[in-house]
From TrEMBL:
The keyword Transmembrane applies. It comes from the Bacteria. The keyword Transmembrane helix applies. The chain crosses the membrane at residues 20-40, 46-69, 81-100, 150-169, 210-231, 243-262. This is Uncharacterized protein. Keywords: Membrane, Transmembrane, Transmembrane helix. It comes from Rhodobacter ferrooxidans.
Length: 288
């Protein structure tokens, strides 16, 4: 009887946690449309639909016994750091955009901070300088300045979040030593039984993710600039367009960096387990 009670508590706890995470994701997506003025009814309905879909996906993934898409579900706090990077980026950029029409003390402070950071990072071939090149050739000075400020703030938040995760790994806070690391649960899209030794594959994927994380801030503006030769140039005049474009530009590379660092750490853990058990490379041992 006590076993069933414990199982019931675990199910309720998992469902409550999944529901809370789904709510946070919905808040993240809805933040710009809620805080920014001048958003029409159709725009709010579209945002609400996207938020509901993302929330439902998050709830299903975290409530399921085995997730299908979300990685590192049971390897906190990696996904929490990712979420905080995305949330603070969206929130700060929304506050900056709101300050243009409804000035406030916090908005002025965040905008001034973003301006200083953007100017400090605006040197030749820097990611911030390349981000401003996504603007149309006829963009006004204040539009370029707005992109520079948003890019500087977004890049700073992503670097801080990435640094926090690296420090957690260095001091042994990730992954937790209190429980075994389950590769199947935390890497649902990674099949450890296919494609050679799992350690070599983890190391290879880690290098690929880190390389992409480093290159994306440079590649995204270049791709946008090249594609604009046949399409209308990206002007980023809409506040929501600016917010989500800069968030994606900064968040995706940071997320890839974190994924690569995490996979490299997992590979090291598997090596340690193999040495502790007297096993050799390519032995097929994959538990961490």
């Amino acid at each position: 009887m006590s076993v069933r009670v414990e199982e019931g508590k675990a199910v309720v706890s998992r469902a409550a946690g999944a529901l809370f995470r789904a709510f946070l994701v919905m808040v993240l997506i809805a933040t710009p449309s809620v805080l920014l003025p001048g958003i029409g009814a159709d725009g709010k309905q579209m945002v609400a639909l996207v938020a509901l879909f993302a929330g439902l996906l998050t709830f299903v993934e975290y409530n399921a016994t085995y997730p299908g898409l979300i990685e590192f579900r049971d390897a906190a706090p990696l996904n929490r750091v990712r979420f905080l990077i995305g949330f603070f980026t969206v929130f700060c950029l929304t506050v900056i955009a709101q300050n243009a029409t409804d000035p406030s003390t916090m908005g002025t402070f965040v905008q001034a901070l973003g301006t200083v950071i953007g100017q400090a990072m605006d040197f030749p071939y820097s990611p911030v300088r390349l981000a401003t090149l996504m603007m149309a050739s006829g963009a006004l000075d204040h539009q370029v300045a707005a992109v520079r400020t948003a890019a500087g703030m977004a890049y700073l938040i992503s670097l801080v979040g990435l640094s926090v995760f690296v420090v957690m790994i260095k001091i042994g806070r990730w992954p937790t030593r209190n429980a075994a690391f389950n590769i199947w649960v935390n890497l649902p899209t990674f099949d450890p039984s296919v494609g050679g030794d799992v350690v070599h594959r983890l190391d290879r994927d880690a290098r690929v993710n880190i390389a992409l994380g480093f290159l994306l801030p440079f590649l995204i503006p270049a791709v946008v600039k090249i594609s604009s030769a046949g399409f209308e140039p990206l002007t980023l005049t809409s506040p929501q367009t600016l917010i989500w474009t800069m968030t994606a530009w900064a968040f995706l590379p940071a997320s890839l960096f974190m994924r690569g660092i995490a996979m490299s750490k997992i590979a090291d853990m598997v090596r340690e387990k193999r040495r502790a058990n007297g096993l050799l490379e390519n032995s097929g041992y994959i538990a961490a």
